[in-house]
Amino acid sequence: MTAPSSNSHPFVLVTGNAGKIAEARLAMGADLEAVEVDLPEIQSLDYLEVLRAKAEEAWRHVGRPLVVEEAGLDLAALNGFPGPLVKWMLQAVGAEGLSRAALSLKEPKASAHCFLLYKDGDREIVAEGRTEGTLVLPGRGTHGFGWDPVFLPYGSELTFAELTGPEKGMVSHRGKAWREMAKRLASL
Fold first, then answer.
1. Is residue 166 reached through a cis peptide bond, with omega within 30 degrees of 0 on the bond before it?
2. Is residue 75 part of a domain?
3. Which domain holds residue 97?
4. What pLDDT tens digit does each residue of the chain (188 aa) get?
5. Burial status of residue 121 (CB atoms within 10 A of its CB: 0-12, 13-18, 19 or more)
């Protein structure tokens, strides 16, 4: 699915995740063009290595200025694991299983990361957003996706899944990364 083309954004967002598209559109404007492509992900604990591999593959598909994203969740209890491999852990045990793993080790702290990479031929710009918080049980809320029901950002009484789109965007790793990317693109 491709949104109508617009000249207000100098790139297309390439992702197969509808939730990521919705959050990007909240941050950058509803006219943000997105192309849903499920990009293969290399298996690495290095966010930037995964991000750059995605960008190269996306460039082969799209061939014009683009942004790709890599997000993950670093659990203090597991020394940063699963990080960018969180998608696979979620498929195996779900959001509550992720939280149970951390809580069973008596270390609920987690760090949500989002990295964005803008690619225009050989030029690339990387932006990062990070939100610290804790994992909770039971899962709470119906908004969002992934680990949102079990992630409680510091300073909030609501999980990501209990926050509305704009509320989540103000505190989330993804919202922070998109605001940083917008600043960097404005200086091009």
1. no
2. yes
3. 12-186
4. 333 334 467 899 999 888 888 889 988 887 889 998 878 889 999 999 999 999 999 999 999 999 999 999 999 999 999 999 999 999 999 999 999 999 999 999 999 999 999 999 889 999 999 999 999 999 999 988 899 999 999 999 999 999 998 899 899 999 999 999 999 998 88
5. exposed
CATH number for the domain including 68? 3.90.950.10
What whole-number distance in Å separates Cα of residue 112 and Cα of residue 125?
20
Residues 126 and 32: their CA atoms lie apart, in Å, by: 18
Residue 4 covered by a domain:
no
8 Å CB contact between 66 and 118: yes
Least Cα distance to 112 among 26, 174, 22 occurs for 174
Q: How much is the CA Rg of the chain, to the nearest whole Å?
A: 16
Residue 1 included in any domain: no
Total domain count for the chain?
A: 1
Q: How far apart are CA 160 and CA 158, in angstroms?
A: 7
Residues shown for the chain: 188
